[in-house]
Amino acid sequence: MCGIVGYLGEGNVYDVLVKGLHRLEYRGYDSAGIALVNPNGNINIYKTMGKVDNLEKFCQDKDLKALAGIAHTRWATHGEPSDNNAHPHFSDDGEIALVHNGTIENYKLLKDALIQHGCQFHSETDTEVLVQLIEYVKLTNKCSLLDAVREALKQVIGAYAIAVIEKNNPDTIIAARKSSPLVIGIGEDATFLASDATPIVEYTKNVVYLKDEEVAVIRRGKPLKLVNLDNEETNIDVTTLKLSISQLEKGGYPHFMLKEIFEQPSTLRDCIRGRVVEDGKRIMLNGVNDNKERFLKAKRVVFVACGTSWHAALLGKYLIQDMCHLPVEVEYASEFRYSNPVLDEHDIVIAISQSGETADTLAAIKMARKAGSFVYGISNVVGSSIPRETHSGTYIHVGPEIGVASTKAFTGQVMVLTMLALSIAQLKNTLPQEKINELGKYILQIPDLVEQVLKLNEKIERLSLIYTYARNFLYLGRGYSYPVALEGALKLKEISYIHAEGYPAAEMKHGPIALIDEEMPSVIIAPKDHLYDKIVNNVQQVKARGGNIIAIVTEGDKVIKNIADHVLEVPEMPECLTPIISSIPLQLLSYYIAINKGKNVDMPRNLAKSVTVE
Ligand code: G6P
């Protein structure tokens, strides 16, 4: 995680860097810092604990003149959040400054060796090892900064995206990456670098996504140069960004999370556009159409994902099993990669990741490719690592998601999974055409139905006041509503810090039922589906033990309305399409409970949106 920014060009360097840090704050926000090379050839480093706002306050009376600079917003891995551990880090002689996103696995070994050579360390970070190593190589080999960076990186095991500047050279920034993302923006008389394109888009649409072990040489007045670690020049592929600035702003909402919840009718329209055609009769996913043979010969599907994306994957299992008659497994990428998974060329491994950068998911993809499996990616961020590492895939196209708690990306992922299951079913003939037509037609209505569900907003805001001070919550669901329960519980704990457990409703009697009393509310997702009668029993079991119940039910439901304390009604849908609709009220409930508690919903403590470390 962590976000890095760099800028070399005309105008106010500090302003460009700080604005960029604000855009990257979703990647971590326990401390922030900036290094500026000023016209006298000195480097000023300013860094402090807390969010980027703090850094701005800290810098108010500082010398901010600069010709180039690098900056960082941190999510601590090695060393607690502190002023000292914040980036940028200086080399021992103060000649070189560096920012880093990633983890250096062999840092201890390198650090011990450097200490033996007389190096003194000033922080507990793995990053400081990098900058000291670069300095050591530079002094020992009497070489340029570029050569020192290349040689140092050859000794490093781990993940890095780095930007490096040196004293007396305000005309150069060296940047490099391996397994952590880095984008270079090419402006008319300026060059930018950042962990993603969001700090760059307002200045230029021309970007270059650095590849693993590529080093960028950014020089004033000279074209960008890319080399590999052996100093051989590599190709520069310039991509045009489709992102717009308005997508990165709150657009009148108090928080990104609320904006993103309310954007869902339009993000789902974007997600479906051109993919459900002929009035719902055909599902067109290029990723499937271009790889028909791989899907036809598949004997099994294995999902790998983390966090909210894992909940979407669980829904993918229900969808593919129901529609395509294929066995499906769902794995946490972090467990999968260390579990000696048995894979072969008949497996389709589907990796789901909003950011496209999650380290564990990327590692799982690499293993699957090695085993000969066909790897399919479902991501949001165009040009991110996962779409580039997979054989094929589908973007969810929901636009930048900035709130750390995922909302519109989750519904986009579930939408893509529904279309994916339908297009495989179409290909394999495992669903009657009438069923495909019926579901296709419903899919086209989903954006309007989500709009209708969002009208529950005020009711949910009022309801949230009753439960703000509950200390524990239980979320229950069965079948397609079970992953929705897991996701609802995750949303609540992420942003309100209330303990919440998602559970399969029928499993409740094997443990969680013991927790139920008048102080432990249960949120029960109970739409009219083939398990409806069963979940009515579960609702009764909770009530019989004095529990308070908030139930998500299908419009017109009378039975549960008579038992539950509160009901939130959602439109009737075919069972497999209910998750998108029923997850919306749960997003709003978490949002309002967290707001009532005065929490920072967009940047919850300890979390980061993009987890690029193990
Ligand atoms: C972090 C985020 C979650 C996200 C998870 C997986 O924990 O806070 O919102 O679901 O990472 O991220 P990915 O980008 O792979 O979907």
Question: What features would you highlight for this structure?
Answer:
614 residues, alpha/beta, Glutamine Phosphoribosylpyrophosphate, subunit 1, domain 1, Rossmann fold, 3 domains, eight-stranded antiparallel beta sheet, six-stranded antiparallel beta sheet, globular, binds 6-O-phosphono-alpha-D-glucopyranose
Give the SSE layout:
Layout: E1 3-9, H1 13-24, E2 31-37, E3 43-49, H2 52-59, E4 68-74, E5 89-90, E6 96-104, H3 107-116, H4 127-141, H5 145-154, E7 158-166, E8 169-178, E9 183-186, E10 190-194, E11 206-209, E12 214-219, E13 225-228, E14 239-240, H6 256-262, H7 264-272, E15 276-277, E16 282-283, H8 286-289, H9 292-296, E17 300-305, H10 307-324, E18 328-332, H11 333-336, E19 347-353, H12 359-370, E20 374-379, H13 385-389, E21 392-395, H14 408-428, H15 433-453, H16 457-467, E22 472-477, H17 481-496, E23 499-504, E24 522-526, H18 532-544, E25 549-554, H19 559-563, E26 566-570, H20 578-596
Parallel strand pairs: 17-18, 17-19, 19-20, 20-21, 22-23, 22-24, 24-25, 25-26
Antiparallel strand pairs: 1-4, 1-10, 2-3, 2-4, 5-6, 6-7, 7-8, 8-12, 9-10, 9-11, 11-14, 12-13, 15-16
Helix pairs in contact: 3-4, 4-5, 7-14, 7-15, 10-14, 10-17, 14-15, 15-20, 16-20, 17-20
